[in-house]
Design goal:
The structure is a single chain. By secondary structure, this protein is mainly alpha-helical. The chain has one domain: MFS general substrate transporter like domains (Growth Hormone, Chain: A, Up-down Bundle). It has 18 helices and no strands. α3 packs antiparallel against α17 and α5 packs antiparallel against α6. The longest helix is centred in the N-terminal third of the chain and has 36 residues. The chain is globular and about 60 Å long. 54% of the residues are buried. It holds the Pfam family UNC-93. GO terms for molecular function: potassium channel regulator activity.
Length: 487
C-alpha cells in the first residue's frame, strides 16, 4: 500500500459516512468544475485565437502567447505543489482564474506594456490551475471507485472523468469563437461576411503552407482592410471579462473541497514548499516513463500552438477569409474537440488504447501532409473541415496522454501533472517563438516529426509494460482497453 493511501475498508467506511448519495455529489462536482472551466476558457480561447492576427505589429500577439507559456514553464517548476499545499485544489483553481483576468482587461489597451505583464500573470496562474484540476479529478475518481465498492476500476474512472471534464472544456472553443464571430462580424457587408473582400494578395500563392515570414509585410495591408472596429473589440473584451468573473464564482460556491475526501488519500504531512517544489518536479524526471512521455507531451503543446498562432493568422484563415472569420473556423475545432472528448473512452474500450493512438497518429500525419500540399482558397468550409479534423486528433491526444499521467503515477499526481504542463508549455513556447521566423511549410514538418517521435516514446512504455506483465502478473499499469466487469 502506498504511503498516505488508506486501506479499502477504512476508506469505504469513511465514504459511507458521507451518505448514499455521495456518488451523485461527486458527479455534481465534476459537472460544476467542467462548466466553470468552459466559461473561463470561453474567454481565454476566444481572446487568444485572435492575438496573432489583431496584434501583429512587431509580432506582439505571438510574443504575448510565448510569454504566457514561457511563464507557465516556471510556474510548473515552482508553484503547483506549493500553492496547492497552501490553498487546496479548490481555492487554487479560484485564485488561478483571477490571475487570468488582467490579460483579458489588457485587451482594452493593447500594448507591450499591458499585454506582456498580463500574459506572464496568466502563465503563473496556469501551472497551479491545471495541476489542481488534474489532482482533483484523480482523487475524486478514487473516491467514486471506493463508493461503488470497486465495481469500476480507478484507472478507468480517471479516463471517464477526464473525458467528462474535457467535453465541457472543449465546448469553450465553440462558445468563445461563436461569441467572437458574432460580435466581430456584426455590421459587415455581405462580401466581407463571405470572405470575398478584394485583396492584393494571391491567396493560392501567399497563404497556407506557402506562407513565409518575409511575405507577411506585403500581405499586411490587405489583412488590415478586414480588421474589426475598436468598438467591436471592446464589446467582445467586456463579455469575456464577465465570463471569467462568473467562472470564479461558480467554483467558489459550487465545488466541494477535497478535505471532504481526505480519507481516500491523505496528503503527506511534509508538504513541499519553495525550491522543494522544483526538486519534486525534476526528480520525477528520473522515472523512465516520465522521460518517454516528454516528446508526446511537448507535441500536444506544439500542435495546439500551431493552430492558435499559425492556422488562424496570415498563413491560413485571416489570409483567405479575414480576421472576423477566425472565430467561425475555430468553432469547428471546438466541436470536434468536444466530440473526441466524449467518444474517446468508448472507442478506447473497443479498439484499445494502443490501437487508438496508432490510428490517431496516422490520421494526424495524413492531415499534415494534406495541409502541406493544399492550395488555399476563400471558401470558408474548407478551412472548417481542416481544423475540425485537427480538433478530432487533438481531442484524442489530450484525453489519452493527460489521463495516462494519472494512471501511471498514482499518489504522485501533482509531480506528474506538473511535468505534463511543463513540457506541454515548452512545446507551445517553441512554436509561438518560431511563429514569426520560419515558413509555415517548415513548421508543419516540425509538428509531424515531433508527433512521430512522441508516438514511438509512448510505444516504448507499452512495450516495457507488456514485458513486465509477462514476468509479474500482479498489480501493473493496466491499459484501459475495456470497461471493467462488475464484481
Amino acid at each position: 500500500m502506498q504511503e498516505g493511501v488508506p486501506t479499502d475498508s477504512v476508506a469505504l467506511e469513511a465514504i459511507e459516512k458521507l451518505g448514499p448519495r455521495e456518488k451523485w455529489r461527486i458527479v455534481k462536482n465534476i459537472a460544476v468544475l467542467g462548466i466553470a472551466f468552459m466559461i473561463h476558457f470561453t474567454a481565454f480561447h476566444g481572446t487568444s485565437n485572435l492575438q496573432s492576427s489583431l496584434h501583429n505589429d512587431g509580432s506582439l500577439g505571438a510574443y504575448t502567447l510565448a510569454c504566457i507559456y514561457g511563464s507557465l514553464i516556471l510556474s510548473n517548476l515552482f508553484l503547483p505543489v506549493l500553492v496547492i499545499g497552501l490553498l487546496g485544489c479548490k481555492w487554487t483553481i479560484v485564485v488561478s482564474f483571477v490571475a487570468y483576468m488582467p490579460y483579458i482587461a489588457a485587451q482594452f489597451y493593447p500594448s507591450f506594456a499591458t499585454l506582456i505583464p498580463s500574459g506572464l500573470a496568466v502563465g503563473f496562474g496556469g501551472g497551479p490551475l491545471w495541476c489542481a484540476k488534474c489532482t482533483y479529478l484523480s482523487i475524486i475518481a478514487e473516491a467514486f471507485s471506493i463508493a461503488t465498492r470497486r465495481k469500476v476500476r480507478t484507472d478507468y474512472l480517471i479516463v471517464k472523468f477526464f473525458s467528462l471534464f474535457f467535453v465541457f472544456y472543449q465546448l469553450a472553443q465553440v462558445l468563445g469563437n461563436l461569441i467572437s464571430f458574432t460580435v466581430l462580424s456584426y455590421g459587415e457587408t455581405e462580401s466581407a461576411v463571405n470572405g470575398t473582400l478584394e485583396s492584393s494578395v494571391n491567396i493560392s500563392i501567399t497563404c497556407g503552407a506557402n506562407y513565409a515570414a518575409p511575405i507577411h509585410q506585403e500581405a499586411q495591408s490587405a489583412i488590415d482592410l478586414k480588421r474589426p472596429e475598436p468598438e467591436q473589440l471592446n464589446r467582445l473584451t467586456g463579455i469575456f471579462l464577465a465570463c471569467m468573473v462568473a467562472a470564479s464564482v461558480s467554483v467558489a460556491l459550487g465545488v466541494d473541497s477535497l478535505k471532504r475526501y481526505n480519507m481516500v488519500r491523505k496528503a503527506p504531512d511534509n508538504r513541499a514548499s519553495g525550491m522543494s517544489t522544483l526538486v519534486i518536479t525534476l526528480r520525477h524526471l528520473g522515472h523512465k516513463y516520465q522521460l518517454l512521455l516528454i516528446p508526446i507531451t511537448a507535441f500536444i503543446g506544439i500542435e495546439q500552438a500551431f493552430i492558435t498562432a499559425d492556422f488562424t493568422k496570415v498563413s491560413f484563415v485571416a489570409c483567405g477569409l479575414g480576421i472576423s472569420y477566425i472565430g467561425y473556423a475555430m468553432i469547428s475545432f471546438g466541436l470536434a474537440n468536444a466530440v473526441a472528448a466524449a467518444c474517446t473512452p468508448y472507442i478506447t474500450k473497443h479498439l484499445g488504447r494502443r490501437l487508438l493512438i496508432l490510428v490517431t497518429c496516422l490520421f494526424h500525419a495524413a492531415l499534415i501532409v494534406f495541409m502541406l500540399l493544399w492550395t488555399p482558397t476563400n471558401e470558408y468550409y474548407k478551412y472548417s473541415i481542416i481544423v475540425a479534423c485537427w480538433g478530432l486528433a487533438d481531442g484524442v491526444w489530450l484525453i489519452q496522454i493527460n489521463s495516462l499521467s494519472g494512471v501511471l503515477f498514482p499518489g504522485n499526481e501533482e509531480a506528474a501533472f506538473s511535468n505534463f504542463r511543463l513540457w506541454e508549455a515548452c512545446g507551445s513556447v517553441i512554436m509561438y517563438s518560431a511563429s514569426s521566423f520560419f515558413p509555415t511549410f517548415h513548421k508543419l514538418l516540425f509538428v509531424l516529426v515531433v508527433m512521430i517521435v512522441g508516438t514511438v516514446g509512448y510505444g516504448a512504455i507499452e512495450l516495457m509494460e507488456h514485458r513486465a506483465k509477462r514476468l509479474d502478473s500482479g498489480k501493473r499499469f493496466e491499459a484501459v482497453d475495456q470497461e471493467p466487469h462488475e464484481s
